[in-house]
């Protein structure tokens, strides 16, 4: 298994007065492409401004039934040739706003048909002195995210990208998290509680009156996703739908050929769902649970102490996973090769504490061989049981799979170990994996890199595969979200189902999995810059996570 070192990322903040931000850039970081596949009917609020020209009124949204509200009073916005614009300013270089009521947790997008200085969109808007905005700085060739509190503005994020007419600006907010996207590429984000409950969103422009706006869209989020049942951020690879620009390898691709093969290097490869053995049980702790010492025998730096119920489940099978969600319901402590010495003492081969509100990826962020969370990609019991109150009949996340070491790929010359940032030095793994099994240099014999992303191509008619309802549910998840290779196993391609799932679901799924695996292909353009493939998403993004109880 693995050992990792921490990687810390700084958050830069500038505190300045009015005007343009400081001359300090935040470099682009392509975290995840935005969803741009949503039909207009999917937007809660929408306006294309295709109505009669006006110099005195912006009118009302085409979808959502609201009139635009103008700030400050005495100014006017209008419509010109199907574009919104600031028609009458207040003779100052202060910001001018046109807003509607959206939500605090929101996705808001607008197209800048024509550029103007200090123009863009606003969100979590209270008034002119208290709001957030994402705006151009045309003269400096950048965008900046601004926070107004009590009339004082600061600049938590700056983006070194020159504004271009036609740019699509997008902001996503979820609780205290704010993420910025331009033209579908994530440019960074901040964590900040300012105006966290404010709900108004809209347009902003300055006195130059040059900016023209088009295709204003708002997707409100109810933030009802439970992190203990469906963890990780909506733009995590575990939750991000596959992009419609994803490309799929043919069956002659070496990685795909090994993945779908029934025999590799003389080893028969079956298809299976780990459930009662070699799975990932999840236990919920409370403050009345025993406070236990968990000693990592491979790395004392990973040892810890936390609440562990005396009856916490340790998985059957040699991997002996034990995963415990903390009483605050914000983290999960994952452990591999667990021995219960007593109700207050455990000995484990690896331990990590995982943020349920994070991305679920490594390095040093989970006990699976790929370096990330063990519960990422796990088919949960509530997803499989029609009598569960949370049941939807869908699996809306990517799945985790393990393959035999004769299928896994080792790249020449790297040896087992870790660099200063916790990334594995035995090579062959691909993003989002950050490592692979210890000893891979001798026992990885195939062509499937750890971290590979597989999916069922959209050309496959799932309904024609003769699957059970349970099998169709999993196949649909593999077509909409895909699957990641996260671990090694023996003589099988194994999917993972929570041990408390109904046996009837698992029985039906196991019968269907050979036919399902035969349809899977490697996605060849999955990367940190284009996670889960580029382009518009096959299905809408998941709602934001609800705050912890």
TrEMBL record:
It comes from the Bacteria. Keywords: Signal. Residues 1-19 form the signal peptide. Residues 524-549 are annotated as: Disordered. Residues 540-549 have a biased composition (Low complexity). This is LamG domain-containing protein.
């Amino acid at each position: 298994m693995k050992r990792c070192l921490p990687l810390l990322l700084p958050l830069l903040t500038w505190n300045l007065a009015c005007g343009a931000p400081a001359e300090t850039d935040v470099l682009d970081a392509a975290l995840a492409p935005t969803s741009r596949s949503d039909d207009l009917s999917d937007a809660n609020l929408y306006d294309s401004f295709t109505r009669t020209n006006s110099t005195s009124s912006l009118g009302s949204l085409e979808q959502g039934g609201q009139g635009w509200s103008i700030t400050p009073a005495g100014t006017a916005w209008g419509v010109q040739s199907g574009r919104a614009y600031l028609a009458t300013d207040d003779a100052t270089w202060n910001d001018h706003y046109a807003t509607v009521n959206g939500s605090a947790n929101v996705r808001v997008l607008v197209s800048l048909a024509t550029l103007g200085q200090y123009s863009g969109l606003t969100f979590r808007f209270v008034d002119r002195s208290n709001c957030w905005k994402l705006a151009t700085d045309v003269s400096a060739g950048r965008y900046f995210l601004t926070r107004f509190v009590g009339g004082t503005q600061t600049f938590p994020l700056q983006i070194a990208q020159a504004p271009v007419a036609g740019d699509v600006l997008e902001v996503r907010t979820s609780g205290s998290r704010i993420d910025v996207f331009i033209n579908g590429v994530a440019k960074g984000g901040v964590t900040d509680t300012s105006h966290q409950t404010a709900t108004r969103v809209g347009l902003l422009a300055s006195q130059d009156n040059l900016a023209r706006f088009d295709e204003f869209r708002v997707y409100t989020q109810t933030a009802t996703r439970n992190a203990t049942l469906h963890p990780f951020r909506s733009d995590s690879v575990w939750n991000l739908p596959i992009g419609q620009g994803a490309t799929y390898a043919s069956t002659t691709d070496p990685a795909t050929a090994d993945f779908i093969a029934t025999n590799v290097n003389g080893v028969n490869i079956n298809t299976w769902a780990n459930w009662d053995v070699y799975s990932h049980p999840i236990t919920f702790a409370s403050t009345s649970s025993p406070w236990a010492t968990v000693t990592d025998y491979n790395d004392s730096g990973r040892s810890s102490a936390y609440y562990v119920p005396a009856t916490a489940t340790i998985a059957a099978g040699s991997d002996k996973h034990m995963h415990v969600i903390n009483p605050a319901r914000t983290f999960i402590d994952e452990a591999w090769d667990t021995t219960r010495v007593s109700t207050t003492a455990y000995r484990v081969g690896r331990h990590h504490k995982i943020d349920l509100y994070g991305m679920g990826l490594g390095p040093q962020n989970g006990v699976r061989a790929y370096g990330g969370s063990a519960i990422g990609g796990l088919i949960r019991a509530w997803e499989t049981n029609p009598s569960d109150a949370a049941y939807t009949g869908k699996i809306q996340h990517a799945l985790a799979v393990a393959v035999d070491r004769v299928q896994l790929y080792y790249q020449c010359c790297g040896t087992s170990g870790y660099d200063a940032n916790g990334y594995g030095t035995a090579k062959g793994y691909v993003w989002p994996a950050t490592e692979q099994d210890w000893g891979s240099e001798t026992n990885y014999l195939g062509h499937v890199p750890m971290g590979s992303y597989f999916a069922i191509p959209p050309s496959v008619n799932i309904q024609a595969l003769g699957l059970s309802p349970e099998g169709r549910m999993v196949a649909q998840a593999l077509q909409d979200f895909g699957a990641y290779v996260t671990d090694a196993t023996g003589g099988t391609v194994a999917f993972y189902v929570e041990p408390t799932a109904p046996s009837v679901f698992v029985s039906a799924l196991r019968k269907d999995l050979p036919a399902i695996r035969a349809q899977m292909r490697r996605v060849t353009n999955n990367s940190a810059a284009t996670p889960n493939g580029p382009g518009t998403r096959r299905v809408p993004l998941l709602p934001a996570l609800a705050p912890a109880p």
